[in-house]
Amino acid sequence: MIIGIVGLGTVGFGTLDILTKEKERLEKEIGEEVVVKYGCALENPGLPEGVIYTTDFHDVLDDESVDVVVELIGGLTFAKTIIMGAIEKGKHVVTANKALLAHDGQEIFTAAKEKGVNVFYEASVGGGIPVVVPAKESLIANNIKKIEGILNGTTNFILTLMETDNLDFKEALAIAQDLGFVEADASLDLDGFDAAHKIAILAMNAFHIFFDFDKIHTTGIRQVTKQDMDYAKKLGYRIKLIAQAEKLDNSIGIDVSPTLVPMSDIVGNVMQAYNVVEITSDYVENVLFYGKGAGRYVTASAVVSDIMKTHNKELWTHDYTYTDAITPIEDSRFYVRSSQPLDIDYEESYSMDDQYIYITTKQNLNALKLQLSGVKYTLLKVRDEK
Amino acid sequence: MIIGIVGLGTVGFGTLDILTKEKERLEKEIGEEVVVKYGCALENPGLPEGVIYTTDFHDVLDDESVDVVVELIGGLTFAKTIIMGAIEKGKHVVTANKALLAHDGQEIFTAAKEKGVNVFYEASVGGGIPVVVPAKESLIANNIKKIEGILNGTTNFILTLMETDNLDFKEALAIAQDLGFVEADASLDLDGFDAAHKIAILAMNAFHIFFDFDKIHTTGIRQVTKQDMDYAKKLGYRIKLIAQAEKLDNSIGIDVSPTLVPMSDIVGNVMQAYNVVEITSDYVENVLFYGKGAGRYVTASAVVSDIMKTHNKELWTHDYTYTDAITPIEDSRFYVRSSQPLDIDYEESYSMDDQYIYITTKQNLNALKLQLSGVKYTLLKVRDEK
């Protein structure tokens, strides 16, 4: 597999880095050489030995040995030229370009079909969360009814900050901007267009339709007030920017709207820059995919899986090694309850009904048990803080 | 694609039903005929026209036209004979048999490799939740560090019932048994062996190892008391049966243990018979898969996706239809706030700081806006109750 990467910014460089570091393992997994032949960008970020640096994407497209073109420059103009050019040359394409696919998906996929090549785009929705491929392949039995999700990490970060730090929208936005969490064109995040691009892509695949992106009704979070957050909370809700797409009687309903989500609901517990996608369908009912929606290696992980997917691997390898070294996981925090006070390292404790209850620090189970010898106690594991 | 289904119980019949109802759509999706030729079981559940009923699995194995054998009888004896026989005959295998793969995975996968066939088993873990395939393919870039999950719906249902209905273990178990939620061999669920089978399969793939299933340290939920649940809750935790596997310094740590999980954590909010799997790795950090872990069509959905996966499809189809009918989703519950009391249909309401706050019943946005004409208000969507 010969790869050309066009765009060596955050995600492009992350992709190159993973392909370099994991080369041997990936080759073993797919049973084929994995070679990055070109890195194409306006500036050379320092390429590994053997990777040809070029500023001209035609070098990549014109090289007949290149099997896959990875487009990671973004935007609607050059990116489209590169993708259409790669398809024209019979090369597979991997892209994270949600705006382009939301706007020009029909043209791109139609061209790809004519040329018999694949365009893969797992990284365009939900960063590294597997959702595009699982929705298209793992849920193939199902007629999808509805997709809902928190698809923009920046706005979810701002909404979380408003809640946890008791800030109004402008104060939280300023912090998010200081942290570099907001795109150069802030409107993409704040007015819901980024989320709209992503729900457009998910809706396209789920409902097997093409449509004009501009038909999606999009409302962002600028008008969400701290006051409404507080009022909603009293009723058991959090405000989240929800993108949804649903099969209606005479149309496909799609919109992006700030929405009250019950706190008892998994989606209501998605905080910070995390993303979530919930898919409701006839056979599998509702399944939900959750993870970080952005980040160099997070998104590059999805790009790399798409690159590997262009290699038409016939068989799953199970070339695993037998091992005897299977043990319980003995380092953990523990819940310990006893009818006597205990001399152990703990994070939290209280006593009630003549019982002493402890959440210990992270420690070794066997060492802890030694400290408890002679004592009657109940002990359970405590999951690591996330 | 010619399919033989062996085992026509809950999941087997569900699989046959989906393959029958969705035949045309699936054929379009993979570009090949999808034919169920045999249904093999001790009793005939009533097969669709054209499907040959047999009680003898040799009929399926000996028919050279059969490409895929779907093993859904469960257990360690006949199921293994059928799977090994199918592999020997050069047929792909799809199975939901977690116990068999946990015990004899090495033998089965080694035989499959020799014969150049695939054994797929998405349905063996987490029912219909896509997790086996995404972990193996979508996360291919990553070195997986840790897997944690709620992998047994029955015990999670019992633990949820203990909490919500203030019951002790035996009372909740009796209800779960009345509802048919507990396996004939209750120990599989209650003592954690079912969860152990599933974490064994996930660990095998994540860490590329084979090992003896009996080395997994497994503790069930029999000793979980209502009292400890209440004490844990005061500290912000719920008790869940957690299966985990982790790369340790000198071993692979695997165990199944009742564990306190923070209520602020997504995993701590997985209730009823839902399952969840969280995978932590180097590039994509943590991703989480959630859904129903059991049920006829839920599990059959995963079986069908595996069957389709045995067809080595080269290209993704995007044979989608252009549509103009894209609308906002206007039927919803709404949050409405106003400085005057409103005459609208609502589920909940309260007033505070001279503001009147309503969660409306599900209704049409435009109809609601008509009722609010002349009133100054703030309006947001409210997500459907799950």
UniProtKB/TrEMBL annotation, chains A, B:
Pfam families: Homoserine_dh, NAD_binding_3. The active site is at K198 (proton donor). Residues 7-122 form the Aspartate/homoserine dehydrogenase NAD-binding domain. Keywords: Amino-acid biosynthesis, Methionine biosynthesis, NADP, Oxidoreductase, Sodium, Threonine biosynthesis. InterPro entries: Asp/hSer_DH_NAD-bd, HDH, HDH_cat, NAD(P)-bd_dom_sf. The keyword NADP applies. It catalyses: L-homoserine + NADP(+) = L-aspartate 4-semialdehyde + NADPH + H(+). Residues 130-308 form the Homoserine dehydrogenase catalytic domain. Pathway: Amino-acid biosynthesis; L-methionine biosynthesis via de novo pathway; L-homoserine from L-aspartate: step 3/3; Amino-acid biosynthesis; L-threonine biosynthesis; L-threonine from L-aspartate: step 3/5. GO terms for molecular function: homoserine dehydrogenase activity; NADP binding. GO terms for biological process: methionine biosynthetic process; threonine biosynthetic process. The keyword Repressor does not apply. NADPH binds at K98. Its EC number is 1.1.1.3. Gene3D superfamilies: Dihydrodipicolinate Reductase, domain 2, NAD(P)-binding Rossmann-like Domain. L-homoserine binds at E183. PANTHER family: HOMOSERINE DEHYDROGENASE (PTHR43331:SF1). Belongs to the homoserine dehydrogenase family. This is Homoserine dehydrogenase. It comes from Intestinibaculum porci.
